[in-house]
Specification:
With 291 residues, the protein is of the alpha/beta class. It is built from twelve helices and ten strands. A hairpin with a 2-residue loop joins strand 4 and strand 5. One of its GO terms (cellular component) is ATP-binding cassette (ABC) transporter complex.
């Protein structure tokens, strides 16, 4: 398969290299990563490990200083890349930074969701259809919410409205920086169900998170430590069969810790990986194994 994202030898540092002074510390160093179409990839690591910087590079907000970052065929590391190419890239690969609801600025929800595509020349019925589809995808009824004031929404509704504005651009790749940060567990769970629906519809989704339970919903997880990529594996492989998360300063989800303990005691859970996303299934497996 041809990956939609191919990163090789990627490096990035903040600050300029001054003559006769040490080089600025690298935020990303030697990153190699491939992402397939319609994959749901989690980016995990301690604060300052380079997760957000990588997302910003993939979105074209920052440009690689060394190495290759090829997204949908466009090499973002090409020094000859122009603003026109970058603008087209940002329409296909869209990022939502942490707490995107803080970027809501129009009075009414429908107008805010419409802002992005309208800015790219979408008008009339085509624009209305985009707004409706994006809002409904995020669980906001078009008829109920399009004329609601943005400042009247709950926190979860504001997050959905902000992400609907991103979806209205119809991205091929969606980059989410801590998409569930600050949400209560039911709202976070609902958001990730919708993210998985996007992936099922063919959108490639990459998200960063500090919540290891959310990582269990991904197809694969990329583990970062101090700007280096330690591993890219399935969540089950990472949490149940390796100590890589701990090396990156991450605590595996409780379900994984329980299962590793049971596996250490001889219980065979290799054919029951789905339990990690379902506490009730985990309880049944434990009960069956102890019966």
């Amino acid at each position: 398969m041809n990956p939609v994202i191919r990163v090789a030898g990627l490096e990035y540092h903040y600050g300029r290299q001054e003559k006769n002074l040490p080089s600025p510390p690298k935020v990303l160093e030697g990153i190699d990563l491939r992402v397939e179409k319609a994959e749901l990839l989690a980016i995990i690591g301690a604060t300052g490990s380079g997760k957000t910087t990588l997302l910003q590079i993939l979105a074209g907000l920052l440009l690689p200083q060394k190495g290759e970052a090829r997204v949908l065929g466009l090499d973002l590391g090409n020094p000859k890349i122009g603003e026109k190419e970058l603008d087209a890239h940002r329409r296909r690969t869209v990022i939502a930074l942490q707490r995107p609801e803080e970027m809501l600025f129009r009075t009414y929800v429908g107008d805010d969701v419409a802002y992005g595509p309208a800015n790219y020349g979408i008008r009339g019925r085509a624009l209305a259809l985009r707004v409706k589809e994006a809002m409904e995808t995020m669980g906001l009824s078009y008829t109920r919410f399009k004329d609601r004031r943005t400042d009247s929404l709950s926190g979860g509704e504001m997050r959905k409205a902000a992400l609907a504005g991103v979806l209205a651009l119809k991205p091929e790749i969606l980059l989410l920086d801590e998409p569930a940060a600050g949400l209560d567990p039911p709202s976070a769970g609902d958001l990730f169900r919708r993210i998985r629906d996007l992936r099922a519809g063919g959108v490639t989704v990459i998200f960063s998170t500090h919540d290891m339970d959310q990582v269990m919903l991904a197809d694969r997880a990329a583990v970062f430590r101090e700007g280096r990529l330690l591993a890219v594996e399935s969540p089950e492989q990472l949490f149940f069969h390796s100590d890589i998360p701990e090396k990156a300063g991450l605590l595996p989800p409780e379900s994984a810790r329980i299962c590793r303990s049971l596996m250490d005691r001889g219980m065979d859970l290799r054919s029951n990986s789905a339990f990690a996303q379902d506490p009730e299934a985990l309880a049944e497996i434990i009960a069956g194994g102890l019966a």
